[in-house]
Amino acid sequence: MRKELQVAALENGTAIDHIPANAVFKVVSLLKLQNLSNRITIGNNFKSNKMGSKGIIKVADKFFREDELNRIALVAPNVNLNIIRNFEVVEKKKVVLPDEIIEIVKCNNPKCITNNEPMKTRFHVIDKEKVELQCHYCELKIRKEEVVLL
Amino acid sequence: MQPTSLVNIGDYSRDDIFRILQSTLKFKQNPNRDLLQGKVCATLFFEPSTRTRLSFETAVNRLRGRIVGFSDSATSSSTKGESLKDTIMMVSNYADIIIMRHHLEGSARYASEISPVPIINAGDGSNQHPTQTMLDLFTIYETQGTLENLTITIVGDLKYGRAVHSLIHGLSHFNPTFNFVAPEELHIPDKYKTFCDRKNIPYNEFTDFSPDSINSADILYMTRVQKERFTDLMEYEKVKNVYVLHNDMLKDSKDNLKVLHPLPRVKEINQDVDDNPKAYYFEQAKNGMYTRQAVICDLMGIKTELL
Predict the structure, then answer these.
(1) What would the pLDDT profile of B112-139 be if each residue is shown by its tens digit?
(2) Domain co-membership, B237 together with B110
């Protein structure tokens, strides 16, 4: 029996599945979807065997660059990315935490220059497994659970 | 590639450190040279620090450079709300090098990224103060004849002491052994122990200022234990006299031992130590001027090899 799709199938574009339910709208903003005029389907709180509830985003006729997609690795590290052409999944991808994270994370040090000047924040990922970041400017180290997004 | 700015002691490789040490030796022989004739150096002290500023400004003056700048942000346009970026862009129009101290951490790194002229970090909050480390390294090199295989005992506030953290980093190229002597509340943070472990640097930790930690040392690096660092004032009262060096404590120390301190000192080195030939902290402060001459010339591309 054919499994019923929870959102309409995509002819061409990118489907991002298994987004943690609490991160869907963060993913929207990290990918700057609000600026696109493409057809976009955003679904949330769908049932998921793996994760309880999940979000799905489908963007028609849009194929993101890798560095664009990797921006979401901090909030949604285990998403399934499906590249779809002519209703077929032609490529499956995983997001990878980049070596540097620019303009996504806030520095937790109130005395850091990035919290006091109109400038981009910049972090080095010093441990990709444990997700440990270090501020490029004040050198503060931030653990995964301490990460605050801008 | 040689660094174009000095923000963090980590910007200097082992070779960079040696090049600066050799150059510093020459400035110590003769600090009065015409190397900066026609150059303008800006000293931007957004946060006052008379000791550091005078050391830098004397370094420049003795090389015949000219100085512009301010010694307190109250007299700069940052009080009008100007961004650091705009101040740096303006000053870099006028000066050939910028020496800055700022209360915000990371400010010097940011300045070095936007400035077309070299930046020297003269302290960014509690983060970095690399010329302090360079003068410490020079003083150790000068008094021991080497930086290799030395035992360094560091006493006092090892938790917040910026000079201590950078010194550990700077010495890490040279196979040191560290003795960390500190009260429980101010012991060396784990990240520096991890750093030592990663670099295979042996270290011992003590809470008492024992004769052993003094007598095994080539360098005894004293720092201030500040009352405001303690959450528990009872604890401060208990330890405030424990980490104090008296002259008689040096009686069985090694002949080559030198006592260093980043200054200002309060009570942690008793004045009776001052006349001991092993007391070297005032000479260490003086070395700061020569080291800064070397760093300034190096960043401005002024060769000192043939001096």
Answers:
(1) 999 999 999 999 998 999 999 999 999 9
(2) no
Tens digit of each residue's pLDDT, chain A (150 residues): 455 566 678 899 999 999 999 999 999 999 999 999 999 999 999 998 888 999 999 999 999 998 888 889 888 888 999 999 999 999 999 888 999 999 999 999 999 999 999 999 999 999 988 889 999 999 999 998 899 988
Give every CB contact of residue B239 below 8 A, 6+ residues apart in sequence.
Answer: B183, B225
pLDDT tens, position by position, B255-281 = 999 999 999 998 999 999 999 999 999
pTM, to two decimals:
0.89
| Cα–Cα distances in angstroms (integers) from residue B123 to residues A138, B45, B57, B106, B272, in the given order | 12, 9, 15, 10, 31
Instruction: Assess whether B110 and B151 both reside in one domain.
Output: no
Same domain, yes or no: A72 and A29 = yes
Cβ–Cβ pairs < 8 A, chains A and B: 49
- A112–B85: do the CB atoms touch at under 8 Å? no
Instruction: Compare CB distances from B104 to A111, A118, A136 and report the shortest one's residue.
Output: A111
The domain of B225 spans 131-285
> Does the residue A3 lie in any domain?
no
Best of B83, B88, B110 to disrupt the A interface by mutation (most A CBs within 10 Å)?
Answer: B110
Q: Touching check for A109 and chain B: CB below 8 Å?
A: yes
Residues A106 and A88 in one domain: no
Same domain membership, residue B148 and residue B26: no
Shared domain for B41 and B69, answered yes or no, is yes
User: How many angstroms away from the CA of A35 is the closest CA of chain B?
Assistant: 30
Candidate list B14, B50, B51, B194, residue with the active-site label: B51
pLDDT of residue B68: 97
Among the partner residues A112, A118, A141, nearest to B106 by beta-carbon distance: A112
Q: What are residue B206's DSSP bridge partners? A: B181
Helix, coil or strand: residue B60: helix
A119/B104 CB distance under 8 A: no
Find the domain containing A40 and state its range: 13-93
**CATH code, A140:** 2.30.30.20
Euclidean distance between CA atoms A44 and B167, whole angstroms: 52
| CA proximity to B165, closest of A136, A146, A139 | A139
Rounded Cα–Cα distance for residues A46 and A49 (Å)? 10
Q: What is the CATH number of the domain that holds B195?
A: 3.40.50.1370
